[in-house]
Amino acid sequence: MPSHSEIRLKGGMSMKILSHPGTCHCGRCKCDNLEGNGLIHGKYCECDDRECIDEETGLMCTGHGMCYCGDCYCEAGWHGDKCELQCDIAPWEIKKKCTSPSGKICSNRGTCVCGECICHDVDPTGDWGDIHGDTCECDERNCKAAYDRYSDDFCSGHGQCNCGRCDCKTGWTGKKCEHPTSCPISPEESLRKCQGDSHLPCSGRGKCECGRCTCFPPGESKIYGKLCECDDRQCEDNDGNVCN
């Protein structure tokens, strides 16, 4: 079986690249299946379904699952990398153990494996480890503010995130502890002042506090304006040249 390496993609995801999976012909990949028996496929020949074959039985996913791009997706009652392990509890009990208080399997944020939820630890935005709980019911991403792409702070840095809800420190309030209690205007009025015509507070480039925007990242002179609406980085090409 050919060796492979792993590369990182945007958002923290990764994919396997085979060392010599195929050749490029007229802008399209032709996968090398002399030894792959037709099991090497994909737009970039990135899928090797031979990885799903159980060595002991010689069957794809041990006959208890479906293979998709080199990974086995097991039938109910089976688990393991190649669906080689059978659960010792009844299907109804498996479902019961994985059902969240909201009635969803692993809160729609994980996979039920033999009565245990394996939470999806990464999402397309690249957040890691933010989903947890026996049934993946806690989503810490709900505690992040609109500007969190510039900050790792939960609850705007003014509170503690508990199972996706912010418990604010004294002097702060709001869904994400973004509003000081000393502010003379309401959280709703503060948000309205920071939004303007944009659907995001501070145009998605800053932090709203008591109706005023602080543009992020701090010290970035290319992002400015009352609502952080100006972003001169949009004028740069890939080499950093401005309007060139």
UniProtKB/TrEMBL annotation:
UniProt subcellular location: Secreted
InterPro entries xref list: EGF_extracell, EGF_integrin_2, Integrin_bsu, Integrin_I-EGF_CS
Domain (Epidermal growth factor-like): residue spans on this chain: 55-83
Species annotation: Thamnophis sirtalis
One Pfam match: EGF_integrin
Gene name of this polypeptide: ITGBL1
Designated name of the protein: Integrin beta-like protein 1
Segments forming domain Integrin beta epidermal growth factor-like: 193-229
GO biological process per UniProt: cell adhesion mediated by integrin; cell migration; cell-cell adhesion; cell-matrix adhesion; integrin-mediated signaling pathway
Keyword tags: Disulfide bond, EGF-like domain, Glycoprotein, Repeat, Secreted, Signal
